[in-house]
Amino acid sequence: MRYLLDTNVLLALGHTGHTDHSKAAAWYASVAGTATGLHTCSITELGFVRVATQIGLQPDIASARSSLDALKASSRVRFELVSDDLGAAHLPVFVTKPSAVTDGHLLELAKKNSMKLVTLDRGIPGATFIG
Fold it and tell me: What's this model's pTM, rounded to 2 decimal places?
């Protein structure tokens, strides 16, 4: 199985101080032997850098980028950046509020690329919730 990790899962995997690190690490351990790929996209990587810096997990942009690179390099499962060419016309029907736009977009991107979206957010139909 190939997995698209959302920003919160990336943050939790990459930072032991994240409140959900143990959940993300347990999920990773459960799939590391069978996963054929872990994937990010522009939205999730940029979100990692932005949020890690905003909430103080990293002191600056350069450190956040290095942290993401280190996470991907240390993984037993290969990380790959997936291209994103889906626009707003591809949002699923469950997206009715602004807060669901990114979730819906990531879900459709995962489906388009035969991946499963992995998230710490409840209520994304068809996603793998690890919280």
Answer: 0.94
